[in-house]
Amino acid sequence: MNSPLERLVAALSDRYHLERELGVGGMATVYLAEDLKHKRRVAVKVLKPELAAVLGAERFVQEITTTAALQHPHILPLFDSGEADGFLYYVMPFIDGETLRSKLDRETQLGVADAVRIATDVASALHYAHTQGVIHRDIKPENILLHDGRPMVADFGIALAVSAAAGGRMTETGLSHGTPPYMSPEQATAEKELTARSDVYSIGSVLYEMLTGNPPHTGASAQQIIMKIITEQPQSVTVLRKSVPRNVAAAVSKALEKLPADRFESAAAFAAALADAHFATATGASGARGVRRSRAVPATVILLAVATLAAAAGWAIRGRSSRLPPGMPIRFATTMGRLGSDRPYLGISPDGRLIVQSVTDSDGRSRLMTRDLTTNTLSLIAGTEGAMDGAEFSPNGEWLAFVANGMLRKIVVSGGPTTTLVDSLHAQPGGLAWSAAGDLIYPGTSGLWRLPSAGGAPVQLTRLDSVRKEFAHWAPQLLPGERTVIYTSYATPVARSRIEALDLKSGRVTVLAEGGVFGRYSPTGHLLYARDNAVFAIAFDADRVRTSGDAVPVQDDVVWSATDGRAAYNVSSNGTFVYLSNAEYRGDFTVVCRDRAGRDTELIGTPGDYAEPRLSPDGRWVAVTVRRPKSDLWLYHIGRRALNQLTRAPAFAFNGVWLPDSRRIVYTFEQDGRYDLHIIPIDASAPDRVLLSSAFDKFAQASSPEGGQLFFSESGPQFRLMTAAVDGSSPPKQVIAGEVEQRLGAVSPDGSWIAYSEQVGGQRDIYIRRLSGTGGRHLLSSGNATQPRWTKGGREIVFMSDATMMSASFDPATGAIGAPVKLFTTSDLVRGTSLTYSYDVTPSGDRFLLVKRIERPGAQPLVVVLNWRPDLSKPAVNGK
Q1: Run of H or E including 499
Q2: For residues 353 and 372, is the Cβ–Cβ distance under 8 A?
Q3: Contact at 8 Å (CB) between 571 and 478?
Q4: Average confidence (pLDDT) over 318-337
Q5: DSSP structural state of residue 139
Q6: In sequence order, what are the residues at sequence separation of 6 or more whose Cβ sits closer than 8 angstroms to the Cβ of residue 544?
C-alpha cells in the first residue's frame, strides 16, 4: 500500500470499510464507511495531514474523548476516535440528509418559522453542551446537519480538541479556531479564553443568514470580514427583510453585540427570546435608525487587529496599479518552511498577499506551502504532492499552476482536486507565466511552450540555441500588456546565461542583460535579475523592451542556485518584494550508514553538499557527488577516513557507478548542455575518457556482474533503459521494449534479472523481469515506488516508497516476489532525482549508505519589503 488513501483503507480495515469520500472540510476529509463490528453506516472524518503533523495523537485522542459523553437529541454523537498509521480520525453517525449550508445554497433564505425552529434547536444543543463545560467554537451552516428537517450539530468540541492537542501551534497549519463569517469578535482578536457567549454570537450569525441570505458581515477576504466583525455594526434584519418579527430581530441583534457581556448570558436565553413575542431591544424596535450602539471596542483591540491587517488594507487600496504611490518602504522578517530543506524559488500573488514555495514536508514529500502575509500563517496545500519549484499564481490570485511528476497542473489556492493540463514528458520545473486570458507559458523540452486556455496542443515559442549551447529556457514572465515574455536563457557556465525577451507576435528575441538568471519585471520600471547571491536592477522601459544605464546590485544575501538558474526572490505587481536570506538558508549534509532498524552510524562526518553515495564492490571506498562549490565526484576511503576529489569537470560531474573491479567508475559528465558518460580509473592509471556520447542525455545505473556491460538510462523521445559494452565492442541497445518511461534499473547479482522503475504520469511502479526477455514481467510495487536494489545474493530487493525504505523477498528460480515490508522511514534524508539513486546498500542488505540532512532549528528566513523601490545610486550592503 503506497498512496495515502490505500494506507488509510488498510489502517482502518479491521474496524471500518471505507466506501467513498463524502466531502472535504477545513480540518478533515469525510468518508462514508461501514462499522464492521456494529454493522452500521458511519461517517469517518480523517484530519488533514498538515493538521495531524502538528498534533500529538495521544493528546488529540485524550482531548476528543471529553466530547464523547455529550448526549442530546440535537447533537451528533461521537462513536469512536483514534490514530491509525499516522492518521488521526473520529467517527460519527452517517446522517442521510443535507447540511444547512446545502439548504441555504439552494434556497438562499428560509421561511421565518423554519429558521427560528432550527436556531432554537441548535441553541438547545449549545446550552446543554455549555452546562457540560464544552464550547463548540465553530458553529456554522456546514456543521448543522438536517435529518428529516431536524437539526443536529456536528463536530462538537473538535475545534477545542484540535486546539488543545496542538498546544498553541495552530498557526503552523494555517487553520483558525473558527470560520470568519461566524466568528465572535473575541475569536477574531484571538482571545485565548472563550465563553458560551462566543457560541451565542455564532448561532446568531447563522440565524441572521437564514433570514437575510448573507452572514452579518461579508467581504472579499477573511481579513476584511474579521475587520468588519471588530469595528462595524451589522444592519438589522428588519431592514433587509421586513417580515421578520420584531422580537426575532431584537434577539438576533442582542446575540451579535460586540462585547460578550452585552449578549445573552446563555444559549437558552437566546432561544427564549426567539419564542417571546414581547422581547425587544432598541435595535429590534427601531430598525436601521435607532440602533443602540454597543460600547466601543477597546482601542487596543482595534490596534492589534489593524497591526495584523494593515498590510492587507494597503494592498487592497493599491490594487494592481503599475505605478506605486509614494510611501516609506516597510521591511519585516518572517519565515517560510523548514530551514535549508526547500527549493530556492518563491512565487508571489499579484496583490502581494500570498507567498508560495515548494517545501519538503516531514514525510519527505514535496508540497506547495503558502505564507499569508496578512495573517502570518503557513498552509500546506493538499493535492500538490510532488510539486517542484516554480508555482505561479493566476492573474486573479485564485489559482496556482505547478509542475509535479512531469505534469503541468493547476489547483485552487485554497486546495482541492488538481487538474492536469499537460501530461508527462513535456513540462519541466523552472517557473511559469500565466496570461489574463488563462494561457500558460512554461519550460518544456527544448524551449518555452504555450498552452492555450481554449484547449488544444501546446505550441512551442522558443528553441534552444545550439550555437550558444543553451541548456534551458526558464522563469518566463509576461510583461504588462502581455505582448512580450521575458525568460532566462540558461547556459553553462552560468556566467554565459542571460535574460532575453520574446515578442510574442513577431518572434523577435532581444537580449536584456548578460550574466544573470531569474529575470523579473518590477513595477518601479526596472528589470531585476540574480547573480552571486544578489539581486541586480537596471532601468527598463517595458513598452519599448529596452534597458538603459548600468545594472546595480540592490539586494544582497539572497538565496540562489547557479546550477538551476533560480533565485529565491520575487516582486508582486503592486511592489511587494520578498526574498529568502542566504545567511541561514543552506543546510549541510553528512553520509551515514543506517541499519535495518533505522539506527545511524556516521560515515562521512565532515559537513558538505553530498549526493549519490556509492559503495565500491570491495567495500573499501565510497564514491560520492559533492555539489558545492561545483559538482564533482569525490572518493572517501573508509579505512583512512579520507575524502579526496576524483574529477575536475569544467561544468558538472555526478552519479558515479562502480565497475566490478573497484578500480573504475562510470559517471555522467555535463558540458555544453549535454550529459555524456565518462569512465575514469580511481588511481589515475589512465586518463578520463568518453565512454558514450550522443544527442541524448545518459545516466549510468549499473554494470553486469562480470563488468562487460553497462546499463544506463537515456532521455530520448522516451526515457528508456539501455545497455552497451564497456569496451565499445557493441553499440547501445534498448534493454526492455516499450513506450512507457523506464528510469532506474538494477541487475541481479547473477546477471539474470533486472529490477526497474516505470513512470506513467504521476504513477511510479517497479517491475522485475528476466534480462533474456522471456517470461513476462512481475510487479513488485506500484503507486510511488522507485530506486530498486538487490541484496542477499539476489534473494531480496529493497526500494523506496514515499518516505519509507521497503524490502521484499525474491526467488531467483521462479521470480516469485514476497509481500513488501517496511524497514525504516526516510523523511530526514536527501532524495535523488528520478534518474539517479539517492542511496546504496551493502550486498548483505544489513547497511544502507544515505545522505542525511543536518537539521538546524528554525525555519527559512523570509524578508518582506512593502513599497519596495530599488536604489540605483549605490550598491546594497546587508539589505540596506
Answers
A1: strand 498-503
A2: yes
A3: no
A4: 58
A5: -
A6: none
Residue 780, phi then psi, degrees to nearest 5: -90, -50
Residue 103 has pLDDT above 80, yes or no: yes
Q: Report d(CA 105, CA 95) in Å as an integer.
A: 19
| Separation in Å, CA 735 to CA 268, 382, 776, 797, 834 | 76, 38, 13, 20, 18
pLDDT of residue 879: 36
- Strand arrangement, sheet containing 433-434: 433-434, 440-444, 447-451, 459-460
C-alpha cell at 621: 571506498
- Render 250-272 in DSSP notation, one character per residue: HHHHHHT-SSGGGS-SSHHHHHH
Place of cell 546594497: 876
Considering only CA atoms, give the Rg of the chain: 31
* 153-189 confidence digits (pLDDT tens): 987 756 665 655 444 433 333 344 467 899 998 888 7
Q: Decide: 784 and 764 in contact? Cβ < 8 Å.
A: yes
Distance (Å, whole) CA 601 – CA 619: 16
Beta bridge partners of 865: 331, 577
Closest CA to 672 of 404, 840, 384, 470: 470
Cβ proximity of 478 and 522 under 8 Å: no
Backbone angles phi, psi at 879, to 5 degrees: 80, 5
Handedness of CA 70, 76, 80, 84 (dihedral sign): negative
With a CB cutoff of 8 Å and minimum separation 6, the contacts of 737 are none
Rounded to whole angstroms, the Cα distance separating 787 from 655 reads 14
Per residue in 209-236, pLDDT (tens digit) is 999 999 999 886 676 788 788 878 899 9
At 253, the amino acid letter reads S
Residue type, 880: K
Distances (CA, A) of 69 to 74, 127, 133, 157, 527: 14, 15, 11, 11, 63
- Chain position carrying cell 473575541: 186
Please list, in sequence order, all residues whose beta carbon lies within 8 angstroms of the beta carbon of residue 780, skipping any fewer than 6 positions away: 755, 765, 766, 767, 768, 788, 797, 799, 808, 817, 820
Q: Which helix (H) or strand (E) holds 164?
A: helix 158-166
- Residue 467 reports pLDDT greater than 90: no
Burial 413-441 (b: 16+ CB within 10 A, else e): bebeebeebbebbbbbbbbbbbbeeebbb
Q: How much is the average pLDDT of 372-386?
A: 84
**Among 35, 121, 138, 840, which one carries the catalytic annotation?**
138
Q: Is residue 532 annotated as a catalytic residue, yes or no?
A: no
Partner residues linked to 712 by β-bridges: 700, 722
Q: Which run of H or E residues covers position 424? A: none
- Find, among 371, 876, 857, 360, the residue nearest to 578 by Cα: 371
Q: How far apart are CA 1 and CA 782, in angstroms?
A: 8
Q: Are strands 98-99 and 144-147 parallel, antiparallel or unpaired?
A: antiparallel
> Would the CA dihedral through 769, 770, 771, 775 be positive or negative?
negative
DSSP track, 316-380: HHHTT-SSPPP---EEEEEEEEETT-S-S--EE-TTS-EEEEEEE-TTS-EEEEEEETTTTEEEE
Write out the DSSP string of 549-602. EEEEEEE-SB-EETTTTEESEEE-TTS-EEEEBGGGTPPPEEEEEEETTS-EEE
Distances (CA, A) of 72 to 67, 206, 269, 442: 12, 20, 18, 56
d(CA 26, CA 11): 23
Q: Is 877 helix (H, G, I), strand (E, B) or coil?
A: coil
Per-residue model confidence as pLDDT tens digits over 798-850: 999 877 899 999 999 999 999 999 999 876 676 666 678 999 999 999 999 99
What gap in Å lies between CA 580 and CA 868, rounded to an integer?
15
Burial degree of 285 (CB within 10 A; 0-12, 13-18, 19+): middle
SS3 50: helix
